[in-house]
Amino acid sequence: MENIVSFSQLLEYSNQHDKRIYQVMQGLEAYMLEKNEDQVRNLTLRNLKTMKSSIEKGLSVSSLSPSGMSGLDAHKLLKRYENSSNLPFNGLLGRIMTYSVAISEENQRMGKIVACPTAGSCGIVPAVIVSYGQEYGFSEEQQVNALITAGATGKIIAQQMHLAGAVAGCQAECGVASAMAASAAVELMRGTNDQIVHAAILALKNVMGLVCDPVAGLVEVPCIKRNGFMAVHAVSASEMALAGVQSVVPPDEVVQAVKQVGVLMSPMLKESSEAGLAATESAKTITREFFKF
Ligand code: SF4
Q: Is 0.85 topped by the overall pTM?
């Protein structure tokens, strides 16, 4: 088996062999890691369980971060959506947003999370997969299929561009995480391989240009709330794809465009905290107070 480095190759191989994307990717991972497919699935299950633990932990703790900028938002969301009805985000979307913020806050507390693809964007994929699992009763096996599908999306994109805010802005972190989550949602809803890829690419291209400008250089503002937004964004992309909406620009060309935007983006907007939100007067005050200078 040869490596698969593009969405077009992934679709061609999957469709030619009449396999779903997760089946192709677990076979490829087994080959690359010199393991069998059961071992790959067990490793994925272990990550899924860690993701679930980080949601539980994130929801059980509510305390301000050392900088004072974050830490209480998951609980605010939890309170809004428990025992209430007739809210626009009641049910699935409210849960997804809450879980995503909870995991992200847990990351900020230095708790155990799964970087997917990065620590800064760690809430998005788990929030979508676990929430769908709870809402629709998907088995652990189906959730593992979804997580491998998300991994396939991340792996294909990562082979074409760097997934780091310092290299390509937040489009490469929360944007790619949203793409991964969108593809996972389509797998869970039994969409086609084409729909899985188009969901990912619709999510990604609609956050093209998203900069990385963390206040005080900490992965808190805007990162934590952004995880909440991008998880819901993933659902929008998956629903569009499941309805048959496709990206006019082919998936691999979209990835190249996102990569190009990352190259063109000013270094001041790539995690250096020299511009954007990080350069506001309030951000400078927070930075001075936190680092005591
Ligand atoms: S803003 Fe920067 S640090 Fe925060 S999640 Fe996005 S890429 Fe990561």
A: yes
